[in-house]
Amino acid sequence: MVHVTTKIERPAKELVEELGTFSAATIHEAQGRSGALDSGIKPIDRDMSFCGTAFTVVCHPRDNIMLQVAISYAQPGDVLIVSSGDQPAGQFGDVLANACVARGITALVTDGGVRDSREIRDLGFPVFSKHVCIQGTVKESLGPINQPLVFGGQLIYPGDVIKGDCDGVVLTRREEVRAAIDACRERDAAEAEYIERYKRGETPIQVSNLAAVLEAKGLTVDV
């Protein structure tokens, strides 16, 4: 028997939305270069982006019965994190994408495969996957929902915040969202200042204070 856990802790919606205003790369850097998922997990359309709370599910390879269960219990604002063993099969397509949209689900991220990618793009539902594959699936094997999950090289807890864009996917612990937002603001402000200094004619060596570092490493320049 498999028990489905549906009640999870989620950060305040306002915090999730605010974190979502920053890029995945900025969040990753601002929280100490942590949380980046496997770079092989990519959006099926580079214009897709999202930010929401993790709703985890484990599917057996080439089997999507638990994905259908997860869609049935996920809440508006959730991101489906679908672990399926890095197997190229079309576990998710346009029909289930429409189900997700109808239920207010924010996005789907999987290390498996999806199909009907054109229809999903037209629908505008954010999908990030390791594979795109036409191969069909069965509905046979049960698996856990909303349990801590090693996925894409990271340990994800239900309710963690997941941000995805054209550069990749990153997670932020649900209890660290406010700190991540503050760190992202500081980083964006610093980078804006760097850009202004470049516009004033300074070089990367000057802006990044690299002269002493380069000299210590033995770099010489014939100027």
TrEMBL record:
Function of the molecule? Catalyzes the aldol cleavage of 4-hydroxy-4-methyl-2-oxoglutarate (HMG) into 2 molecules of pyruvate. Also contains a secondary oxaloacetate (OAA) decarboxylase activity due to the common pyruvate enolate transition state formed following C-C bond cleavage in the retro-aldol and decarboxylation reactions.
Q: What are the names of the required cofactors?
A: Mg(2+); a divalent metal cation
- The organism's place on the tree of life at top rank: Bacteria
Instruction: Report the coiled-coil segments.
Output: none
Kindly state which reaction or reactions the protein catalyses: oxaloacetate + H(+) = pyruvate + CO2; 4-hydroxy-4-methyl-2-oxoglutarate = 2 pyruvate
The record, for PANTHER family, names: 4-HYDROXY-4-METHYL-2-OXOGLUTARATE ALDOLASE 3-RELATED (PTHR33254), BLR3842 PROTEIN (PTHR33254:SF16)
Residues given in the record as substrate binding sites: G93, D94, V95, L96, R115
Q: Which organism is it from?
A: Rhodococcoides kyotonense
EC number(s) given by UniProt: 4.1.1.112, 4.1.3.17
Quote the NCBIfam families the UniProt record gives: PRK09262.1
Record-linked CDD domains: RraA_family
SUPFAM superfamilies, per this entry?
A: RraA-like (SSF89562)
The UniProt entry's sequence similarity note says: Belongs to the class II aldolase/RraA-like family.
Q: Which molecular function term from Gene Ontology is one that the record holds?
A: metal ion binding
According to UniProt, the name of this protein is: Putative 4-hydroxy-4-methyl-2-oxoglutarate aldolase
**What does the subunit comment say?**
Homotrimer.
Residues bound to Mg(2+): D116
What keywords were assigned to this record?
A: Magnesium, Metal-binding
Which InterPro entries does the entry link to?
A: RraA/RraA-like (IPR005493), RraA/RraA-like_sf (IPR036704)
